[in-house]
Amino acid sequence: MNILLRAENITKQYQKHRALNQVSMNVPAQSIFGLLGPNGAGKTTLIRIINQIIGPDTGTIFIDNEVLKPQHVQQIGYLPEERGLYKKMEVGDQAIYLARLKGIKRHDARILLKKWFERFDLTPWWNKKVEELSKGMQQKVQFIITILHRPKLLIFDEPFSGFDPINVNILKEEILNLKRDGATIIFSTHNMGSVEELCDHIALINKSEKILEGEVNQIKKTFRSRIYEVELESKHAPEKLIPDNRFTTINTKSNNGSHSMQIRIEQDATTNMLLEALLPMGNLMSFKELTPSMNDIFIKKVTGKFPLETNQKNGEPIP
Amino acid sequence: MSKTTVIIRREFISRVRKKSFLVMTILGPLLMAAIIIVPVVVTQLSDSDYAVAIVDDTTLFSDSFEDTDNITFTPLASSIEHSLQLMHDGRFDAVLHIPEMAFQAPSTLRLFSERSVNISAKLRIENILKLEFESLKLSHAGIDEEVLRSIETPVNIQAIRIKDDGELITDYPEISMGLGIVSGLLIYIFIFLFGSQVLRGVLEEKTSRIVEIIVSSVKPFQLMMGKVIGVGLVGLTQFLIWVVLTFAIVGTFQLAMPDMFRFTPDEQVYITGSQVLSVEEMEKQKEIIQQYDTVAGQLMEGLMAINFPVMIFSFIFFFIGGYLLYAALFAAIGSAVDNEADTQQFMLPVTVPLLLSIIMAQMVMLNPSGPVAFWLSVIPLTSPVIMMVRIPFGVPYADLALSAGLLIGGFILTTYLAARIYRTGILMYGKKPGYKELWKWIRHH
Questions:
Q1: What interface predicted TM-score (ipTM) does this complex get?
Q2: Domain locations in chain B?
Q3: Ordered domains of chain A (ranges, CATH)
Q4: B49-97 pLDDT per residue, tens
Q5: Nearest CB to B208: which of A52, A87, A97?
Q6: B 152-211 residues with CB below 8 A of A?
């Protein structure tokens, strides 16, 4: 696997607060990498270090196996969480200005921008002042500026905040296009569900430390809940259905001989064993594993327990 | 084009295109020209005729009052009551009553008017009566007025400065003072106007949250310097336009109405009543007029005595150096706070040295080579203003070199400190830092 960005033992100390503690991670090329974690975990600090806005106290960042240098800013596109534009400046002029700061020539910038403005239905706004644009349009302009210089590495910090659902979809599609064209994308968000579907790899950061990193499918496998949702039509009472302690019933809902249950398979048992036990009992309507969401995995990582189990303890129904 | 140049270009163009720039650029010279022209015009046109009726109970002084351009005197034989009635009817603006006792008791003199009195008329009347009373008293005492007048000796010392090369030049401290204070003030105004524009520009980038987008492409230092230089160029451009336009407007006006700008001496009240002037008195009048004629010549001579190459070069140097020194500090303030209201706390220590230099300028002019003048003109925070005040009086090259060197050093130091505050400040939102916090930003790598 080709690694585009490698962070090694990054530590950043603010006056009284350690923002990052020995964080290392590998971002594979041509993939979408989710940098996940709650607010204040240190994601933005890490991103600013990658963008060379601030320097780390210790540790090194490599891009394509080269130590990060000032010239690398040309190869990175960054959409910060706190983003805005000059309100009084015309949209087109402003886009050209920001493109030139990324090293694109004025003439080229204009041609590229016209194309993108067309694509995002922004052309009529070229000569308007930014303050006349809606928030969503401003976000589109910012997005265009971020990707205009065709960077190898794109970093989006909370990209979907402020977008309406339609624009979120447009944006997701564009991001997938960029990946197809060979870009590597880092997503940072505290809303773990929102990017789960997009990400190939993720790293979880909590309280300045990386607590988990890997391929999304792999992680999900590791964090299998081993809980199955079963629907069964049976004349037996639900308690009678599960014969032995290889399985634990977590939750049961019964309605006229139709039982909906959540069953956890304990260590030495397998799915087949559960099926074998269930099949003679009645008519099996559905059988599927409850896959944990990134959110669940995160909570499991931090608290040591899946939210499902927590819920059970409190005696509340599982959502 | 380097990225800093791209930033400078935007800062310059976006400001020059603003309506407020256009308005200021045009209004500035109009105001300046008005300051020069209006007083001239006003003294010329002065208000319309002011008619004064004179009721002279002594009958001694009625003829002593000569009309001037805008005051007419009319002796009346009628009673004071009648005269007041005439004034009430609008025939006169004021009535001067000289009672019998006036000569013995001048405090009995009265000037009546229905609106508030015209000061220049009052002064003129006082002047005339004073001379009349004096000459009356002299003749009562048996002293010949002409003898007395011949005793009067104007004393006017010519100040000579011996230059380093032994050349003698006439010193005109008044001209030096004028030049010094004007150039010092210009630098002061320039620093304040455009320094605060830097501050607002930084604040705008911060509050609009564009700053993080920009610093992912350029170093914060480049952004800060781009702004400082860009705004400075806007200031220089505006300043140059002002100078050119001001001269153009004043020049045009002068060409159109040359009479107004000729040096004309104030008419002195030497002509007493209808008396025929004696030869000696004529001489005296001539002398006075000549003296005034040479004022223009003296002005020229005084200006020639100023070392203009040094003056102009220093002005440009301290103008730019002072701006750069302070602009970096203003940028740091803008980066440290979230809104304009919070800037006050940090503005104080930056504005105090500037205000101090303007306040001390007067003291420096009185003793331009003294220790206060020396120290204030070499310390970078006050030197841009104070050195300009000193230069017209002649400053040793050693002082100039020291001051210039320290200003360059000071500029590098403030820029270095400002850049460190700026770098951290632009990304800080929400909390208002104190001085302790700023110090940590400076020390923190």
A1: 0.79
A2: 3-33+178-443, 50-151
A3: 3-215 (3.40.50.300), 226-290 (3.30.70)
A4: 788 888 888 888 877 888 877 788 888 888 888 888 888 888 888 898 8
A5: A87
A6: 204-205, 208-210
